[in-house]
Amino acid sequence: xxxxxxxxxxxxxxxxxxxxxxxxxxxxxxxxxxxxxxxxxxxxxxxxxxxxxxxxxxxxxxxxxxxxxxxxxxxxxxxxxxxxxxxxxxxxxxxxxxxxxxxxxxxxxxxxxxxxxxxxxxxxxxxxxxxxxxxxxxxxxxxxxxxxxxxxxxxxxxxxxxxxxxxxxxxxxxxxxxxxxxxxxxxxxxxxxxx
Length: 195
Known about the structure:
This protein has two domains: 4-43, no CATH class; 67-193, Jelly Rolls (Sandwich), CATH 2.60.120.1340. 0% of the residues lie in helices and 51% in strands.
């Protein structure tokens, strides 16, 4: 004789008629249960099996282009009234793979002499890159730097690291004439893998 299954949303209160089986999901485990006309409840759950062995780790994939590995930020104002470069933002970063990296620099700058330059450079692992040499528009004004202007600038450098290890990054600035007030504000850089 074939049995007919009656699906229920919750555990039944009574027993089904002869020839029928109630089936529902356990309210705690969610596993199926059944009840026959004699009132016997059947659990369809067994003990959990042992976990299998862990397989070998696959090879590391290549880093994608533009993958940022680190960054640094400075938000305060720094004033330099000499022609000697001052460090504004420095950080040592561990480079784990050789190849080309993009270093994106951004900063705000001002200078209180419209006839002289604000000069910004970056030294990356001993290599110097001039990022900016520019005369400001405003010669004088309010503010601790002798002007109220804040000019924004950003520039990317592609640098090849032929070796791995800890590398230094240094954003520096100076004025082209002693006594002028060159200033940097809100400096930032990030380092990303290109190859």
